[in-house]
Amino acid sequence: MTNYQAATARYVGSAERQLTDLPADRRFDATRQNLGSLRSITAQDRETLLKLHATTTGYMSALAQLAGEDAYSLAPDIQKVSGAIQASSALGIDATQVSAYGNIAQRVSDWALEAVQARSVKAMVERNGADIDKLLEAMQRATTAYGAVLDQEVASYELISDYRAAQWSARLPGDSALTPERREVIDALLRRSARVDLADQQQALREQQAAAAGLERVRKSHQLMMENADRLRSKDIQRSLRQATSDLKSIRQSLSTL
């Protein structure tokens, strides 16, 4: 799940990065306007992503303690659960997931006090499992949204690279100082820069895909818990539970640095 920090950072910073590199030519005015809107959306989505991960991590940690795993502390996760997330068409988060967040966040704040008395893991899973599954689904949708934005960034970069190459290759009156040799040097530098940037963008897409695969694993682990609610104290189920909790904690700790 270490790829999630990089993938999220690329998503949140995509619009700003593209605006910085966008040529001043008026033909890019519409693109500039669209990127301005994207920048506002991603800035708002950042807080939703943090809250989603804090809540799911708190839930998994509570289950881990009740199922016999005492390696994690609830307190840091409980403190991070506050406020409400918002529906986001950019992330694919809809009203049902916003409602699920509200249901879970309201309960998580009491778990630190109730954990000592609450011994019925089955009851907790049956009561909250469906809502948590919705939140994990929202996280998966957000990761898919990352991919769409990063794909758009690659396409935009390639278009701008072609535009800049054309600007340097065009022969205009008064630019006699730009000899063929000098033009070739500039063109070579542009090509080299484009190769490096495109390789970096492809790496970002690979990180997004790895994060999506990791979230799929977490969600399957949680579904395993729901299917085996009667035997969550068994060692094999506890092992799966510990792994899911560890994955989610890794995400939260990474996102906290953004």
Tell me the fraction of residues in β-strands, as a range: under 5%
Structural class: mainly alpha
The helix content, as a percent range, equals over 70%
Largest sheet: none
Task: Name the average pLDDT.
Answer: 75
Number of helices: 7
How many strands appear in the DSSP assignment?
A: 0
What is the element string, with H for helices and E for strands? HHHHHHH
Q: Which of globular, elongated, flat, extended, rod-shaped describes the shape?
A: elongated
Our measurement of the CA-to-CA distance between the termini, rounded to an integer number of angstroms, reads: 15 Å
Supply Rg. Answer: 24 Å
Q: Which runs of at least 5 residues are low in confidence (pLDDT < 50)? A: 69-76, 112-119
Give an overview of the whole structure.
With 258 residues, the chain is mostly helical. It is 78% helix and 0% strand. The longest helix is centred in the middle third of the chain and has 49 residues, at 121-169.
